[in-house]
Design goal:
The chain is mainly alpha-helical. The chain is built from seven helices and no strands. It has one domain. Helix 3 runs antiparallel to helix 5.
């Protein structure tokens, strides 16, 4: 499923998770690209869930900037130490705010546990930030950070 999300992110998103083409066209193109219909359906459901959780979080009372997140056992297991540390780091450098953090955690827990690693957590954060127009500067910082990490590995 995650490969489908990455394909959609790279080819269809233009500032929101609303895709540029109708769903039947997208499904057909994804099938032609080699993705299975079940994986396509899961990816589209995941994106629909992203929109729903954003609406829910935005309608909720505002989180204070100093809110501390206590993870449930399931969240801790899925994120792992590296994932939780990464999210905390992003909050400390103001890339994530408490509301966006909640969106990211929700979408990470919506993934198959076998699909979760630090690289995919970074992609979920990118997708969540990309879908919020007021987070463009945070998105840019995260993209720069991820690209610089990739280049450090090459040296």
């Amino acid at each position: 499923m995650f490969e489908v999300l990455m394909y959609l992110f790279e080819n269809y998103m233009d500032g929101s998770v609303a895709l540029n083409a109708d769903q039947d066209t997208i499904v057909n193109e994804l099938e032609l690209a080699g993705f299975h219909r079940s994986e396509i359906g899961r990816a589209l459901d995941w994106l629909d869930g992203l929109n729903k959780v954003q609406e829910t979080v935005q309608a909720a009372p505002l989180f204070t900037p100093h809110a501390i997140r206590h993870y449930s056992f399931e969240e801790s297991e899925r994120l792992g130490i590296q994932g939780r540390g990464f999210l905390l780091y992003l909050e400390q450098i103001s890339i994530l705010d408490p509301m966006t953090r909640e969106i990211v955690i929700d979408r990470i827990t919506a993934l198959d546990p076998r699909e979760i690693d630090l690289g995919r957590i970074k992609w979920v954060v990118l997708i969540a930030l990309f879908n919020q127009p007021d987070k463009k500067s945070a998105l840019s910082l995260l993209q720069d950070m991820i690209l610089s990490d990739a280049f450090d590995v090459l040296h």
